Amino acid sequence: MKKGDHLFLVDGSGYIFRAYHALPPLTRKSDGLPVGAVSGFCNMLWKLMVSARDTDVGVVPTHFAVIFDYSSKTFRNELYPEYKANRSAPPEDLVPQFGLIRQATRAFDLPCIEMEGFEADDIIATYARLACEAGADTTIISSDKDLMQLVGETVSMYDPMKDREIRVPEVIEKWGVPPEKMIDLQALTGDSVDNVPGVPGIGPKTAAQLLEQFGDLDTLLARASEIKQNKRRESIIENADKARISRELVRLRDDVPLVDGLDVLTLQPPNGPKLIGFLKAMEFTSLTRRVAEATGADAAVIDPADIVVERGEEAHGPDVGAGEQVPTSDLAGKGAGSAGPVASKGASAAAMAGTPTPANLVATRAAEALAASIDRTAYVTIRDLDTLNEWLADARETGVLSIDTETTSLYPMEAELVGFSIATRPGKAAYVPLAHRNGTGDLLGGGELLPGQIPFAEALAVLKPVLADRSVLKIGQNIKYDWVLLDRLGLTMAPLDDTMLISYVLDGGSSSGNTGGHGMDRLAERWLGHTCIAYKDVAGSGKSQVTFDMVDIERATAYAAEDADVTLRLWRLLKPRLVADGLTSVYERLERPLIDVLGRMERRGIAVDRQILSRLSGDFAQAAAALEDDIYQLAGERFNIGSPKQLGDILFGKMGLAGATKTATGQWSTSARILEDLAAEGHDLPRRIVDWRQLTKLKSTYTDALPGFINRDTRRVHTCYSMASTSTGRLSSSEPNLQNIPIRTTEGRKIRTAFVAEPGRKLISADYSQIELRVLAHVADIPQLRQAFADGIDIHAMTASEMFGVPVEGMPGEVRRRAKAINFGIIYGISAFGLANQLSIPREEAGAYIKKYFERFPGIRDYMDETKATARDKGYVETIFGRRAHYPEIRASNPQVRAFNERAAINAPIQGSAADVIRRAMVRMEAELEKAGLSDVEMLLQVHDELIFEAPESLVDKAIPLIRSVMENAAMPAVAMRVPLHVDARAADNWDEAH
DNA sequence: GTGGTCTCCTA
DNA sequence: GTAGGAGACCACA
Known about the structure:
globular; 41 helices; 6-stranded mixed β-sheet; Rossmann fold; alpha/beta; 49% helix; DNA-binding; 5'-3' exonuclease activity; nucleotidyltransferase; Nucleotidyltransferase, domain 5; 5 domains; Taq DNA Polymerase, Chain T, domain 4
């Protein structure tokens, strides 16, 4: 939104009541359904959308939204429980119209916005503020006095029934005070309809006069004794508190955590057929005719739409999630309109197809994609600059460039660019070889560049401006890899789209795991019915594998150009599905902006002290060797301690120890748990085995392996983050995995001391405290948990206290430990079996604990049941930000499979919401640091609930509070959590001390 | 050499 | 009981 734009905000809830009372009561559909208010509403919307210039407002809106009350319960009830308490139930023939009005709004393709905990007025106030900040004007379609406090230079109101605009003079004329004093005026007068107390005996006239005399409410209350009239003075002094609470009740919040910004409210031309379908169903014949004339649609051939009549008062759309603004597909559809030059082209293509709904576009594209065959012989090898320039000009023309780099390594931080492929239209793809060679350049000779390749620097020079061109969308499959590689070469790509991430948002969850994830080969099979050339068919595999620069250019062209072509085709197919499925904002807020954030983190890497690791390796080796001697002695023979099979035979075969259990495959289990139990019985050997395993694990996985990941050039370790490999929305880290560096044991912790800051700098670690339990407290809305988190109490002790009736003071450690295990169990989709295992107690006892827990926290059981039901119903569950995780196998007939999927479905919204929160923090972090003059503070690592930064020592004190603030407020404004988030942060020279 | 199994490190 | 990645072993090719 920009200066000169004009936003219309319709107070839908206010309108419906006013229309109901103002219009003839007898308007009914032929089946008796009362639709008088709906009819008035539709006529008004149509008029405002197409001929607002003819009204008293006299301008054409550029942005438009209809705002509703979500329910009668809002934050005001917490301030004043009696608020709106005397409001009687709405008339019976109005009730079904609440839902119809929302359906009408969607039929008009207008954003339909409501939010739990806030009134429509608060949402209106927030959007009006945002519009004002953007330099735009706002007209509020309402005549409600509660909204008049918002009127000002850029905000006016419009009474649609009187066709009259309300500006500052009109407010003064009606109430005797300017808009900015309306809050104080209402605080004094109160409101009998909403049960706002006010000061008894003070009406609007008196209130206006008093405010005129004293200026504002605070001054009036402070100097009340100066009032001459006895009765009035006494009343005000006595009811000062009522006036203050009233002021808080009538003051509108303009900081509502909106899910969608102003751009989503952009007014689209009316969708004739869709609207007519609704109007016909409602039997609004004259409006149907007017709409048909205006949109050129033939009403005769359009069938009436299906109308859902809801009888309850809570008449929300079916897609309203608890605590969320309605992220309807309508809204998402609008959002996609602003996705750049490409989306608009897609939209016009769909319009030509005649039925421009997102779902139809998706269907058309899917059919197209399957029908089109892929012809590898049409691919081009670009060997000169002129041809390359022609192709890049075509990219500027189409506004899209599918790109894929070919390199010598899977690690983008050490890979060398060998060539790149591009595609500008489906089927039009080319490969640009840059560094193919005629051999490895070993003793046999060779290693020279092959002829017929554009000089490296010249090719990059012409590519660079296109990659940086904001009007050309760069599309890739796992484009973070290409981004990092090209960024190293000084080429920065923006804006980006990633087919892997689009697929991840659309089809994330266990279903994608079973079908091979979101890799391109898999997506091509699934969506295009096409089998891509396998990498190993081009470069070989195993010992005979060669790097891509050794691949024959013709062969490379077929392989590489196909990748770019397939990626472009997938993008055309999958991108519209985001809109159709209402997942645009998940992609736009949680995935797309994270690509370059993670890319920079990977590029920065973290310093690892080789000496420390090498010393630790030596220590571990020595200690392990000593244990090996003991072990052979105790066992009476030498064997491979690392072989569970051999170890099992020694322990349970040769020595005949009791307590043996078998693994799934019938082997003796030698897990740490079993060995610990044996050790507790006084057996020495199992104890040594456990210790030996720990040392060898630390040595092989960490102290020996990590130095191999230190990059030759940067001398730092650069992990690779995967954005699309978990079912819940978490990231994963590999090569090396820096999300599982030891911390639990003292020996293991030492490894963290090897992760260090450069001289003069510090590492800062900031981690969320109990974020998943807080998410649970929020989504399941558990009063005791909310209270405990609000008060900062030890949550596990509180749980124990609730369950076992033990006071928190002097609680035995074992009691708290059990409660803690239960709390974690809940997050994991508890089972008696699992809890029993965790606590080493009988299954019956564990079952009794769980029963007890659910008695104390019935809301948790309800939440779990509801989550399972949704998963069965829809096949997926959602995080609080709308990310979906699919669990189709929750309907499996196999009880084990089903139970597993139920637990996963319970866990996913909790784990996933927490993952979304930290993603949001990461997306915002860099800009916030920069704004605070802290651009030298660098985000390096993410470990699920922790972020690691490296900062110059001098900036640490300023950085810590800012980092905490960004992390703690990361859910806002999309979700106002009912539980505060808490972040601990610390700085030190190494990761061990910082954490 | 590849893939399955077991074990163990993290949140 | 959730979500990951990785090393070692071992049977198979």
